[in-house]
Amino acid sequence: MRYRPFGVSGAAVSNLTLSFGSDSLARGREAGLDLVYSALEAGINSYRLETADPVAAEVLGEALSHVDRKLVTVGVTLGVGAGRDTTRDFSAEAMTAAIDRALHFSGLNWIDVAVLQEPGEHELPQSSLNALKALRATGRIKLLGVAGGGDVMDAYVSTGAFDALLTPFDINADWKVRNRVRAAREQDMAVFAYDYFTDRRSKPRGPDAPVKKGLFGMGGGPKRPPQSRQSDAFGFLYRTPNWPAEAICLGYVLTDPAISSVIVRATDTDRLEMLAATPERDMPPGLAAQIEMARVTASRAA
Question: Which residues contact 159 (CB under 8 A, 6 or more apart)?
């Protein structure tokens, strides 16, 4: 594992941040613990609670209790409900309760980054900002972050009120996203990337799929849709020996020095090991240039 500066905090975070939530516990509590233990063994020191769900917080806290608290960075996502609750709530009461709940069940003593998940332009009242400042003043949270990919993120970055930006960022990230990342770094914000991989394979009809007949059963019906030029452009991702397409995309995002860490999701240790090995691997010669050429081709086809 490799490490990068965490904004102006003076700390260092691993190239990968493990996202931990209900999916991480789908195979049970012990599997969730094993997942975090494997992440620690791989050198991952950055973790994100997807919600303030008590069970996820308790499991993550138990696993991290075996290491010095100062050596790990833990973030909590605010504004989204825990578990199956999809309610969005950025009120001061809801966010304070979420932080208190995460701290109580995890036993982590403090939260390093409290992250607001995609707040709308008018969704964050001043009372909520005051509550976050109060939580920061008491040491329950250290830093504030904002997550999202919409244009409103530009306004949140420009306020200077946040210490971290969590943004979608993949091999085909457009100029808006790249400019936003640059602006965040100029504000000394730490930048975390997510949604780094999109399966770009086209899905043509299989040879055994039934062919629709024309009117009254005559004729061959519509032709199979041609493979899109965008899919063609990135087809090499699935033909690179010894490199899964996801690993290539992850490795490419990590070549951007503005990215502090990439948020990954894994529900089993085998997948986690594949992802954790990627930062130490050198991408095949010429692959980065091939990606840039594919980006140009895809933009023309869009």
Answer: none
Angle at 102 between CA 99 and CA 103, to 5 degrees: 85
CA distance 136 to 114: 10
Q: Where are the alpha helices (DSSP H) in the chain?
A: 29-41, 54-64, 92-106, 126-137, 152-158, 175-186, 229-233, 245-254, 269-277, 287-301
Buried b (16+ CB within 10 A) or exposed e, 28-47: eeeebbbbbebbbebebbbb
Task: Summarize pLDDT for 122-144 with one digit per residue, the tens.
Answer: 888 889 989 999 999 999 999 99
Least confidently predicted of 121-135, 140-154, 155-169, 260-274:
121-135
Counting Cβ atoms within 10 Å, is residue 288 exposed (0-12), middle (13-18) or buried (19+)? middle
| Residue 88 DSSP symbol | B
Are 155 and 123 a contacting pair, CB within 8 Å? Answer: no
pLDDT in tens, 245-259: 999 999 999 999 999
No. of H helices and E strands in the chain? 10, 10
Q: Answer yes or no: are the C-beta atoms of 120 and 132 closer than 8 Å.
A: no
Rounded CA Rg of the chain? 22
Q: What spatial distance separates the first Cα and last Cα of the chain, rounded to whole Å? A: 36
Per-residue tokens: 269: 């240790």
Burial 138-177 (b: 16+ CB within 10 A, else e): eebbbbbbbbbbeebbeebbeeeebbbbbbebbbbbeeeb
Nearest Cα residue to 269 out of 22, 27, 14 = 27
Q: Side chain identity at 26, as an amino acid letter?
A: A
Structural domains of the chain in order of their starting residue, each with its CATH number = 3-201+245-285 (3.20.20.100)
What one-character DSSP code corresponds to residue 238?
Answer: G
- Max CA distance (Å), the chain: 76
**Alpha carbons 173 and 274: distance in angstroms, whole number:** 23
